[in-house]
Here is the input.
Amino acid sequence: MDSARYRDLFLTEARDHLVAINQALIALEHIPRASQPAAGAGDGASDGATRASVDALFRAVHTVKGMSGVMGYVAVGSLSHAMETLLARVRAGEEALDGEQLALLFDASDALEAAIEGAAGAQESALDVTSLVERLQGRASVVRAMAADLAAVAPGGPALPAGDGVAVHVVLEPGTILPGARAQLVVARARTLGAVTAVVPDEGAMLGDEFDGTFALRLVCDADDAAIEGALRAAGFVQGVRVVHGAAGAPRPAAGRVAPDGDADAPDAAVPRTAAPRPDAEARFAAAWGSEALKAPLQRYVRIDLRRLDQLMALVGELMIVRGRLAQRATLHADPALDEAVSEASRFIGELQDAVLGGRMVPVWQVFDRFPRVVRDAARTLGKDVEFVIEGREIELDRSLLEQVADPLVHLLRNAIDHGIEDPDARLAAGKPAAGRLTLSASRERNAVVIRLRDDGRGVSRARVLAKAKALGLVDEERESLEDEEILRVIARAGFSTAERVTELSGRGVGIDAVVSRVRALGGVVDLRSAEGEGTTFSLRLPVTLAVIPALLARVGGESYALPLTHVTETLQLSRGVVRTVRGREVIVIREEVLPLLHLRDVVGLPGRDAGHDASASHVVLVEMAERRAGLVVDQLVGQEEIVVKPFDAVRGAASCFNGATIMGDGSAALILEVGSLL
Here is the structure.
């Protein structure tokens, strides 16, 4: 199998399982220790929660192990197998899951993530997980004893009837779950190499209680010894494989272990071991494999390469442009049949667009669920206790947009924990609970998705920000205070920081700058609200998708511009009497509300209108961003359309108020205005 073809798919699925692993570990950590003895020994609801989390953890680790086996990733397989073995002992009640074991599993989870990323990057050979595997097994000495035991087993094996081919003796690992089923998997792997003419004990007897994981088979094939061993080990849980040529195999000791050649207690070599299975063995086997704890949830979805969805979306975008051109052409011909055909085609293209866009939407929990571990680790690093809450997990966002907003959120989370939430002593002194509260939420507001991160920490120190801003010459010396919008603009400047110390998490003055830059590049805006002593809230307002957005088209100086409709509240004719001048700046009075008035002609750098121009022929578009509103004067309103967003690379020196471009129905281009930059 060409594993490179499936590497990306492996990585995608493995990351999902890593999320499940971390969720289960965190859930276990929050269950009182008293209810975390060996699974099943606790009491009530807590014991049920412990068992459910252990089962979820076991399933995720087990699945990763199976996937790594198929892909041939040794380090991932070894580590996940060691984790699975530890969890199997916990599930069987043989071992308690205390704080030390949980810490070990957290370490193993981190190492597993590194191993998965390394394997997917073809760098697995550089990873050494031996030490951690031995810690998980808790038995480095036992491992050596197992090796010695295997060496003792090697000379002998179950007696096989004479025949062609080679005798293959197999020993499963001690503690293998359902050894009979695993042995049958090994036999099935052997059959992929050639004809299996004998199996001792037979496959029915393997299901009995007496089966100890040691068996032999006779295999007729052309494969060499290494290929045979490799194929059988790939079945998993195989401790040793020995291929014997030209012999019927050694006798089997009465104790169930393979004995050295010539053991007097061995059964007749010509008679295979035929221990009868228990009458209920088949039912027990079926029940064990049918255990709900071992079943993975049925998949409702088919994984699709995101590039295929991008390609589909690009094609739909081109169809939408063609639809606009057809509609314009149709208006030139008074042909009812043509109009009807264009209308029907438009409807189908619209439905296709909705279907493709729907296929790109994913719930935000796919990114949000990665954060509890980040918060936990960051809080522990700083000696803080943080209660992390996620709300609105099912809100959907375009997949590519959601992935790109993950890094900005990590910046904000770490910043909140480091600089927002106080130390426990400081919180208690301020009359707050010792544990800080950090809430990450998503909500749908009109045609946008708003992601908010709210903490109940100390809030932004306006005095310190103002002092630093004055020192850097960012504000006038006469300023006595800063509004929230001004604070955001100041702290979002590259290199700005009021932190007294630089930690592993923040303080270098690059976080907010990166957050604002990335969100603006996505067509969104960042808003800040902070109250000293009460906390800070960052709001990221994002378009639902980057591909197609509803927009209002307007013209100025013969050029077309698109305003995202999510920021447009209303339009009106610029009539006399509504424009005033306040402190030398034009404002517009709408229903007793005074709003600043901007001229799009000035914003984009076009020449002014002639002195004799009738201003009442112009229009005003009222735009808003968060709680900020303004009027934007344009020459002409063209109409409302769904536009296809095209990447836009501004030339040097161009106005910085655009974040994309689109193709109009007549084939001309229109720039998309970034409303946040106007306000």
